[in-house]
Write a structure and sequence with these properties.
The complex is a heterodimer. The longest helix of chain A has 19 residues. By secondary structure, chain A is α/β, with parallel strands linked by helices. Chain A is built from 41 helices and 63 strands. In chain A, strand 56 and strand 57 form a beta hairpin. Chain A is globular, with a radius of gyration of 43 Å. In chain B, the strands form two sheets. A two-stranded parallel ribbon of chain B has the order 1-2. In chain B, strands 3-4 form a two-stranded antiparallel sheet. Chain B has a domain of 35 residues. In chain B, helix 2 links the parallel strand 1 and strand 2. The radius of gyration of chain B is 16 Å and the shape is elongated. The chains are: A alpha/beta, B alpha+beta. At the A-B interface, strand 2, strand 22, strand 23, strand 24 and helix 22 of A face strand 1, helix 2, strand 2 and strand 3 of B. Strand 23 of chain A pairs parallel with strand 1 of chain B. Chain B: Its EC number is 1.8.98.1. Chain B: This is Heterodisulfide reductase subunit A. Chain B: One of its GO terms (molecular function) is metal ion binding. Chain B: InterPro entries: HdrA-like (IPR039650). Chain B: Keywords: Iron, Iron-sulfur, Metal-binding, Oxidoreductase.
Chain lengths: 1393, 62
Amino acid sequence: MGIDGEPGNFTARIHQAPRYVDMTKCTSCGECAKVCPVSRPNEYNELLDFRKAIFKQYPQAIPGAFGITKRGTAPCKATCPAHVSIQGFVALMGDGRYDEALKLFKEDHPFPGICGRVCHHPCEGECTRAQVDQPLAVRELHRFLGDYEREKGQYYIPKIEAEKRSEKVAVIGSGPAGVTAAYELLKQGYQVTIFEKQDEPGGMMRYGIPAYRLPRDILADEIKVVQDMGADIKCGVTFGRDITLDSLKQDGYSAVFLAIGLHNGRKLGVDNEDIKGVVQGVDFLRDAAMGKKVELGREVVVIGGGNVAIDVAQTAKRLGAENVTLICLERREEMPAWEYEIVEAIEDEIKIVNSFGPRSFHLEQGRVAGIEFRSCKRVFDENGRFNPQFDDNVCESFHCDTVIVAIGQSADLDGIREQGIAISRPGGLEADSVTLQTPIDWVFAGGDAFYGPKSVVDAVACGKEAAISIHRYINGMDLREGRDKTWEFVRPDIEGEAIKERLMVECLAPQVRCGNFLEVSKGYDEEQARQEAIRCLSCGVCSECYQCVEACLAKAIDHSQVAEEKELSVGSVVLATGAKPYDPTPLSEIYLYKKNPNVLTSLEFERMLSSGGPTMGHLVRPSDHQEPKKVAWLQCIGSRDNNKCGHTYCSSVCCMYAIKDAMIAKEHAGGDLDAAIFYMDIRSFGKDYEEYYDRARNREGIRFVKARIHSVIENPENRNLILRFADENGQILDEEFDMLVLSVGLEVPAATLELADRLGVHLNKHNFIDSHPFSPLTTTRPGIFACGTFQGPKDIPSSVTEASAAAGLAGCQIAAARDTDTKVREIPEEIDISGQNPRVGVFVCNCGTNIAGVVDVPGLQEYAATLPGVVFTDNNLFTCSQDTQAKIKDKIIEHGLNRVVVASCSPKTHAPMFMETLEACGLNRYLFEMANIRNQDSWVHAYNHELATEKARDLVRMAVSRAVRLKPLHGKVIPVNKRALVVGGGVAGMNAALDLARQGFESTLVEKQAQLGGMGRKLHHTIEGADIRAYVDKLAAQVTLDEKITVLNDAEIVGFEGFQGNFKTAVRVGGQEQPQEIQHGVIIVATGAGEYTPKEYLYGEDDRVLTQIQLGDRLGEKGAAALDSVVMIQCVGSRNDERPNCSRICCQSAVKNALAIKKNSPDTQVFILYRDMRMYGLLEDYYTEARKQGVIFVRYQKDNPPAVKAADDGILVTVRDHVLQRDIEIRADILALSAGVLPSGSEEVGRKLKLNTNAEGYFLEAHVKLRPVDMGSDGVFLCGTAHGPKLISEAIVQANAAAARAVTFLSKDRIKLSAIKAEVDPDHCVKCLTCVRSCPFEVPRFNVEQGEIQIDPALCQGCGVCACVCPRQTIKLNNYEDDQITCEIETLLAGGM
Amino acid sequence: MGFEANKQSGSVMVVGAGIAGMQASLDLAESGYYVYLVEKSAAIGGVMSQLDKTFPTNDCAM
């Protein structure tokens, strides 16, 4: 990814990886995953269980479409000349699915058994397994497939799916190239004739490869498959003599493929080569193969170092030669023969002599009697060319009676040249290297005769290419297009991969195979094949076995998808790339992570607790699956740690999630679990978090142990973990646990660092976004904003707040272009159905096989057609698919349907989509009903098809009966007043008003004081050193000058009414008699908070006792030079019985002032008496700095607070030192109290605006996690310290967020409410007020003037409680009227017809 | 430099579809901006979707 351009006008370049599944077609039915043979560790469950290569990230994942994990092509498939999906058939074999494996193999290669015996298996040479132990025995595995079908007695014949064609193709030569070309052409529908010169088909496989390597029956059977597919094989026909190109043309052949092989030998060029007793290797092998009597002496010399020479030597031995000596030019390691063949030859007692070349033959009685060799100094010259150098001084003679020359092969071109067929310089056939086309356009050439002697698999690959060319030639297509594919592969990481030795194949012992042609290798049996198959490392992840393609009825899978590079034109960018949990593997020496399975990270533990996790929420130890009795959490793993992991910051969330996990674990364990949290400081600093901590400690019985962990050792008996730690008093203790949970921190992943670098966005030293305290989400590159944990470590509510804030900032930048890129859905005018009889259309879904596999869908459809009101029925494979929506629209129009029933799945997920389909053809969206025959029927009654079908009938009957009673409904539309009211003119309120103005919306800012600025005016600097007062002045000036903001100082709210989009607020300004009425669409509450005025520690009695704010003022005025000693006491007015929560900011206030003192006067002693230092996030750095500067931190207990006494020479503070275990007394010139935060004026404003607060007076958000700046009432938003204690930078972010949330409202001209609202019938209502008392939202009101109960549709939530409780049934809930519900019950009880 | 070249885009790219990216996208879309939400994995949800419960309410994270 990269970004060019300017803010407002960026071009973003995106690389989109292929999903290999068409999202518009995938219905998420999951059939693909059932057939996928590849399992891999499931990232979603933190690798604690497995998923398939085709997968859905988690059951509720959005998008719901599956996707395939590929890591490119596996080395085996890429390396195989025929590109067989090796990993695929191996995976299927590992699963025991041999038929599927065989079919997959045969997609690309016709000879599993043949190549399973003779292939030189280059795939094994690249196999990643080889880097761990030995390569996978790929060849033996597909040999097993060949053996399997042979044993079954039924060969797999590929189905010819193409239509039969009239064109005929002639193939000359029935070797592997010719047969493969025929095989591929047959699949394309062509008629193929193979002409073979010899009496039997197979070419070199028949006449070159000895039977002990490739038994003849196996060869014959695999060739017969091609005949079964329709090929006509004519043997004993010589091309150039019996047939010619002309005769073939005359016979109507459209193309010819020449694959004639190399059946002649090459001569040595030594005198007397033609004497008796000297024969050519190819001739010798052919004669042996034909069973001809071959004249062999006792002493045989074979000349040559290739595979043919080896075959010749072994054959000679088997035919009775006493001694066989193989002599070649090459050194042993240079020999072109495959190593395993050489080894086998040596086993057969063949003597191999290297580095000698023949010089002359000895004759005796006209027959060879011996041969003289000279030493070969080197075979290849410095350019690697064959250029042997001999030393005539070193010669050796061998006595022999037979010499077999096997130094090369050549083509038999008799009758070929004469036909004008082009011959290449080395004496083979000439053709194009890619297309294989010869200069005669309808003639193609391939195989050994074209490229020289190679292996069977090379011929197979060539035959496939020839078939492609011939098909294209016949169809007048470009022969060359798209054929330049290069195969690249990737390898997985093999670190930690366990060793699994390759299973060796049993072979006939040399003495048993001596003198016969029995097959040497026995191959694998089934058990061995499966064992070997599961050694595969699944390099490509997806094995490309294509089982998913067949399983997918929706035809959604597309393995040919490729990555796409896209350019997006955007005005702003928001980076929300997040942080990841720290990986504690580098610390495994200390904590035994990955060494002992009972040590888990917190996220792994979280997955263990989840019902969707690897143990389905059952808490067990991984080592023995026993329920743990004692679990310990170790805090600050990967956080607050300079030595081991380098992350010095606090991750802010670990204390809270550890408490949560401990509580949930206890809940799972039914209470008798001992859960202990080992910590440095418990940092439960968020809103109401301290109460959570209190609950865990006091009510749930979770132990909190302040400790430093020394080490963890394993108890070898039970794999328990013995924790050695120093407690608070410095004492070393041991305690044994069943499980350890490492509370790992957050860190920015490496990929994000690269991204930031590419985008030119600066990061701070902790790798989080580098930003200013007053604009925390603005990155160093204008126009790019950041939010969430990439900005800094934080919890979910803060992330969500930041997200809204970043959205707001991104919007501020391009407000002028609002609504220019978005599309508005066009809805046609609604059809009036009044007076029409119900005309119901029922669409029954098969859901692939999800429903149809259990319920009789055609029967159900027929049944539906008989129901009253039904005029049309249909069934669809997937009713939710895009094309079915179009079909439903057509049917609605065609049949004049005015009600639609879909019998498929859950309305929760699918009803809105179908309702849109209705709307799109003019039908009111409420004229729709669903019958859930999947989740509530076919899934749960999968084993009783009959009853499930019966139930489906009931469900459909009920749905139809309800559908005929449905009425069109219209939600009320309310206009939105585009002005905002911002209550509170502090930093938060001013920022919110300014953001609204930037987005183009006017606001009225109401401030109770005479001056804007709030608490900001009492502070000096942030802990980072930013000047708060200058900032507040700047903000106030901006606000005052902004034309879109009306500031009302000295103002008080005196009246309020209305609802979202239409509020009216009366404000009295400057004590005027007549309040102003402000009409506005939204409210932003930013009333702020102040400092608690302490009653403790002589505050107010002795002027040497100050609050931190006062100390800040004092330091600003006089500095610290005159002070010898300053003591600070934390948690004054916080974390006590009266105000149980933490005030969040006081620890940093204390450290900020302590650092200011040390900077100003290094000799002044500073003591901070604390309970937990809550220097969360990056504040931790200042805590570390304070300790470095000599600030002394003394921990005190809540139940033993410091005692304070006034004396003449100072304030005497007595505190219990936890290390010394005794009281110490400190004299202080100043005692600074870290007084907590108190909300200001929230009670009054809350009462007037009808807003709720918590017990401590902070306003309540609509949802703690997900709607942290919305309030319970629609159209009301919250920011700043009115929500809870927070730092100035956090208040700014929240103000940005509140403004952004308000803009989501203000940017709309009107709001359409749901039509599902309660309505009162005033004529029959007896005003009993039951509804007024019952409504959970307090909506029904008794209008005294009109004397009736009224339910405001703008406020009604449509829950239906009032309709249920109304004793006279005078309240109806639209769309759920009594008869619309009772009819369903009645029709169910009435039974089917 | 013509007027066209300076014309602002009404679209925003949000990178990362965890809880923050999703919320930012929803807010932008609701405010009249077209959103490209770019995510490297196959589904949105990020780390939060892996959580079982959330503090301090012990609500289900899903």
